[in-house]
Design brief:
Layout lengths: L3 E5 L10 E5 L8 E2 L4 E4 L5 H10 L1 H4 L16 H17 L3 E6 L6 E8 L8 E7 L5 H18 L5 E2 L15 H8 L1
Parallel strand pairs: 7-8
Antiparallel strand pairs: 1-2, 3-4, 4-5, 5-6, 6-7
Length: 186
């Protein structure tokens, strides 16, 4: 991307292993409404809804960020989840990463999350991860995942967005996940 900036995502003097390539003038959407859901930046405001969705989908979520990644642990508390959402909110505000809560149109249910993270892969602009709560019907989950995948492809200026674990099997993805590294560093 010739008109882009490469945001280095090292924190507090860390190395610059991760990068996020976005145009210098790009502003991540603060809200998006699709046919089946809305997206809002992940934040502590949504902790009750998020925690319920995370814990009911816990087994499905393990391995989302890499083979063997045990998040969320069985003993995750709502306070732990709130701290995580606070981290996501701060990262979004600083432009380091972009996590969205996937909510029902009435904002009474968390239906999952979408994450746009820096990548350590020099051939990609960023990495994306997505999940929909196991409490949602399979056909709705599939439709929501398709709609959000299209949103990222059409509305975000990436030329090489990676989907580790989705379109790229983890066995073929030797790179660390930004969230897993940062989560374990804090």
């Amino acid at each position: 991307m010739s008109d882009s900036t490469v945001a280095s995502c090292g924190h507090s003097g860390e190395d610059d292993t991760f990068h996020l390539r976005l145009p210098a003038d790009f502003q991540a959407p603060r809200e998006w409404q699709g046919q089946r859901c809305i997206l809002v930046p992940a934040a502590p405001l949504w902790v009750e809804l998020d925690y319920a969705a995370v814990m009911t989908s816990r087994e499905q979520l393990q391995g989302l960020f890499g083979a063997g990644d045990a998040w969320p642990p069985a003993d995750l508390t709502q306070a732990d989840d709130e701290a995580d959402l606070t981290w996501h909110e701060r990262e979004f505000a600083q432009g380091y990463s972009f996590a969205y809560s996937l909510l029902s149109h009435d904002r009474l249910r968390c239906m999952g999350c979408v994450y746009v993270y820096p990548t350590a892969n020099p051939e990609h602009d960023a990495e994306a991860y997505i999940w929909a709560s196991t409490t949602e019907p399979d056909e709705l989950r599939s439709a929501v995942l398709e709609e959000l995948t299209q949103w990222l492809a059409q509305d975000w200026p990436f030329t090489a967005l990676a989907w580790p674990g989705r379109s790229i099997p983890f066995r073929e993805w030797p790179y660390s996940n930004y969230y897993a590294v940062r989560r374990n560093a804090d």
